[in-house]
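Annex B, item 7. Sequence and structure tokens for protein A, then protein B.
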Amino acid sequence: MTGRCLKCLILAAILVALTAGCSADKSNTGNLSSADDSLSRPDSEVSGARIYLYNKGRITSEIYSEKIIKFEGKDSTAAYRLDIDILDSAGNVSTHVVGDSGFIRETKGFVNIFGNVVAVTDDSTVLETEYLWWDSNTDRIKTDAFVRITRRDEVDIAGWGLDADNRLKDFRILSQVSGEIKDPEKLQEE
């Protein structure tokens, strides 16, 4: 009986040690994975949402998206089917931008827009590209992708890369520029 009790005690001690060891391993792994999960899992997902970007208390843009996935810890919001109104200092829409998807950095005021990007200004100037980066603090639009700018069906300019104000009044195409002016006399009248 003593040998049998000794065997039971040894078996019980081994089970306790194994159980304690397993639970310690799980909790350590759990802590690591929960930290990883908190960085990779979104804080919220919203369908049909609006985001407003501000600069010094003034609304600079209203962003509507069919689906928004927000990562608070990374100041990053993924958005799908973007529809953006960029506002001037009086609160009027100066440029309207649409795109398939994008990333919004709310605290920094940056928006990256991808896929079928079209921007239309209040004077009907149209910018078409596949990628666009907008800084709401400086009201600058930039890209290194192919761009096409059409102004009132009179001027058609294309090339690679763009640095422009958000109203496309002052812009520079960075390389391989080509264009066509359909009626130069009409352009001089303005």
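Protein B:
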Amino acid sequence: MKKAFFQRVTDEEQKKVQCYLCAHNCHIKEGKRGVCQVRENRDGVLYSLVYGRLISQNVDPIEKKPLFHFLPGSLSYSIATVGCNFRCSHCQNYDISQYPRLNDGEIIGRSVTPQEVVSEAQEYGWGSISYTYIEPTVFFEFAYECAQLAHERGLRNIFVSNGYTSPEAARKIAPYLDGNNIDLKAFTDKFYREVCGAKLQPVLDTIALMKELGVWVEVTTLVIPGWNDSDSELQEIARFIRNIDPEMPWHVTRFHPTFKMTDRSMTPASTLQRARQIGLNEGLKYVFVGNIPGEAGENTICPNCHETVVARMGFSIMSQNLDGDRCGSCGAAIAGVFAGSPA
């Protein structure tokens, strides 16, 4: 166990605490846990139950996060604990994200130190550490200590996030966080309430704040038939991203039926092409189709000369035409974090 960050006592006599790590701002009674199921009030003090308890350690292409304008072609050491502050009906990693909820609060995972995580990433020459598979905010204390140490040793740090991080937590991690792919799952509170058990506005606030804090941000929308695939909703998402930064990449990706959402069909490729065109029409410079290897819309195209800068097939880089952070054909700047960018 580790004493949790971002807590305040709200009732000393009854030993109640408030957790403000994420936007749920849970008020937690003694002996109880927050929405994430991995932070528990013990005798009036909140503890993380998953500090250093890793359930997953893998090496992934950075494109799998997905991050397309962040060290393309590199490998990222990817780690996770159990738990999540969302309860998404379509979660592809529900077996770990919902593990405590589905197993009477049990916490599992192999005990690892930040030093071991960072040293392993260094030893094998992986350029970054990704805190992923579940919402990394819920294992913030461990991620923060890993990120600090990784930063000192010249490694990059990446969150793959649902965007429900509190402003206080975002500001604390930002000096050590290089990239953040944030899910913008839909543009209605109905979706967030009924599908995720959350609200929309905190996600919008986090995307804007992370950008303001200097973190490289890419946004992903899993396009689900009948839920968030209308022209109007896709336009609203695209306009929101454009108003923050038209060079912020937007990934529109294919949904596969899973977990509790098996009543929907797989997203047609034509829907994703329509979503991509809506993003481009709204002024976004980089819109990518995902989860369909070989489908048009995977490549980075220079917005100036329209030549292919990075050619992809799924998670694989087929070719690059970059000169640092510039198009190799016309010299126009390409937004992102590329080889040679300062750490």
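Comment on protein B: The chain has a mean pLDDT of 97.
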